[in-house]
Structure formats: structure tokens, C-alpha cells
Amino acid sequence: MSLYRHLNWGFIGCGHVTEVKSGPAFSAIPHSRIVAVMRRDRGKAMDYAARHQIPKYYSDADLLLEDDEINAVYIATPPDSHAFYAIKAMKAGKVVYVEKPMARTYKECMDMKNCSRNTGIPLFVAYYRRALPYYQKIKEILDENILGDISRIELKLFRSANKHDLQRSNLPWRVIPEISGGGYFIDLASHQLDILDYYLGAGQIIKSSATNEAKLYQAEDTVKASLAYPKGIQLEGAWSFVSSGSDEKDRVKIMGSAGELSFSFFSSEPIILTTEENEEMYDLKPPLHIQKPMITSIVDELLGKGKAPSDLESAIRTSRLMEEIIKPFYTLDNA
């Protein structure tokens, strides 16, 4: 029997990611609504609350966590404060839904897990692709064994540097390791590695390299990794965030004895299934509020109506794997 009859959410952090991708979904789901938002800039918190018709706003996270009307918290801050706020929220008795990656380091992830276990408070991570029809279709194809015995996966994500990277000052937090845990690899590959864990099981590192080719910032900008998955499946991954525009690519190929499956992660290109008999294409576009299917499944689980595809253990494995992949470049201080 569920302990929850209605989810009253408070947001810690209400920046860009919450404007369309996630925020509006919380109040568009039955038995769920946004009660309050918090941002350190009081004026921005007030503006966000007014624009989204949210009754309360705070500039102090402690005041939000002391609000008895709130029983669930969405943490949408940069990763350096994920563990800090998640642990405080769980100790305050609030369910936590935290943005990805789960935290900067494996140690911080384990601290969060241990707090969830000790308090009995549920903790979910926003790997929302698991709940999207696009990725559910891929899972269906894999589960039906249409590809036969899978042997190899090729993953390529090549992007050019954005204008903020080129400024070399006032850099995005995503390329400041003390805040993000690394560079764009941590931010974007986390989605990819989580989905592959969802489909195939835990991945293990065979070898990797991480370098800074363009010297635009301190974090790694180019990564290569060979990973082993259950049943002898091997992945060859390559990531570059300083590619030329003509070299940009976002594609994954899963190759099996009976066919090949290709899809994208960030460009919404169609899924292409190729077998000896034919080629099929599935063009499944994401919803406007892209996190809504995952948030809906989490609300349903908390209400005792189902099970969300969010997996805490998998989220921890993903953070640990990314940490190991970039270890040749530098090691974060876990103290």
C-alpha cells in the first residue's frame, strides 16, 4: 500500500532545464502539483513562480525543506550540489527526484544511496529517456531478439565547440570539473551509458582515453572507450566536443547476427532496423515536456500504481563507469 495519496513538489533550482523539459509536467499529472520553487536569486524565483502559476517561492533551500505542505523535491541544480540537497531533503522526509548525472562522483552517489536506505525515503534519478516511446521501441526490438546474437556496438557523438566555450571566460558549468564532475562527456554520455545499462546490463571498462585537444577549458573534450557488456557484447565509443561542423555526428549502431539497429540520442533521427528481409524506420518524436513520461511513472509508483523505469543502482553504475573512463585524464577529489 502506498504511503502517498498526492505529490506536492518543491523545486530546488528552477533554471532553463525546468522551463519546458521538466517543470510543467509536474502539475500536468493527476495527483501531482508544484507547491513551491527555490532559487538563490529571490527575484528569479519570484518571476518563475509567477510565470508558472506556482503559489510559493523561496531563496533559501532550508525554508523550502521546512515547508510541511511539500512531500517531494525535484533537484535541478548543477551536479556539485546534488548530493548535498538530496541528502538534506531525504533527511527532511521528502521524496527526491534528482537531475542527471546523479552526482559528480561515485562516492557522492553512494552517500545518496545510503541516506535513502537509512531514511527509507525513495530516490529517483532523471534518466528520462528510459520512459520515452523512442527508447522503449528500441528495447522492444532488443527484447524480441530481432537482431539475433548481438556482438558489437558503435557509438559516436561528435559536436563542435559552442560559442560560450570559445569565449574562454564565464564558461558553462558543464565544462568546470569542480561543478559538473568533468566536461560535456559527463553531461551527455551519462544518458547514453544509462540507456545501454537499461538494455544490456552493467558495462565494464576494457580501456579508455580522455584528452583535451582544443584547450578551450580544463575539462576533457575528447574521449574514447572500449566497454564490455554481458553476453560478450563489446562497445567502441568515441566522443568529441571540439569537432568541425562537417564532422558532427550522433549515432549508435547495434550489430547482431540477424540484423543491425541504428539510432540517435540528441538529434531525434529515426530508428532504423535493418535485417536480411527488409529495412524498417521508426520516427518517434519526443513530447514537448520530455520528462513527463518518466515523472508520470514515478508519481504512479509512489501512489502504488506501478513501477518506474528509474533505477538507482544503474544510475550509480553509470556514474562509476564515467568516472573510470575519464580517470586517465584526471581524478576528482572525492574528499
Strand and helix layout:
Layout: E1 7-12, H1 16-19, E2 32-38, H2 42-51, E3 56-58, H3 61-65, E4 72-75, H4 82-91, E5 95-98, H5 106-119, E6 123-125, H6 133-143, E7 150-158, H7 163-167, H8 177-180, H9 184-200, E8 204-211, E9 222-229, E10 233-240, E11 249-256, E12 259-263, E13 271-275, E14 279-282, H10 292-302, H11 312-326
Parallel strand pairs: 1-2, 1-4, 2-3, 4-5, 5-6, 7-10
Antiparallel strand pairs: 7-11, 8-9, 9-10, 11-12, 12-13, 13-14
Helix pairs in contact: 4-5, 5-11, 9-11
Describe this structure in a few short sentences.
With 335 residues, the protein is α/β, with parallel strands linked by helices. It is built from 11 helices and 14 strands. It has 2 domains: 7-127, NAD(P)-binding Rossmann-like Domain (Rossmann fold); 133-285 and 318-326, Dihydrodipicolinate Reductase, domain 2 (2-Layer Sandwich).
Structure overview:
This protein is of the alpha/beta class. It folds into two domains: 7-127, 3-Layer(aba) Sandwich (Rossmann fold); 133-285 and 318-326, Dihydrodipicolinate Reductase, domain 2 (2-Layer Sandwich), CATH 3.30.360. It is built from eleven helices and 14 strands. The chain has helices at 16-19, 42-51, 61-65, 82-91, 106-119, 133-143, 163-167, 177-180, 184-200, 292-302, 312-326; strands at 7-12, 32-38, 56-58, 72-75, 95-98, 123-125, 150-158, 204-211, 222-229, 233-240, 249-256, 259-263, 271-275, 279-282. It has an eight-stranded mixed sheet with strand order 8-9-10-7-11-12-13-14, with helices on one face.
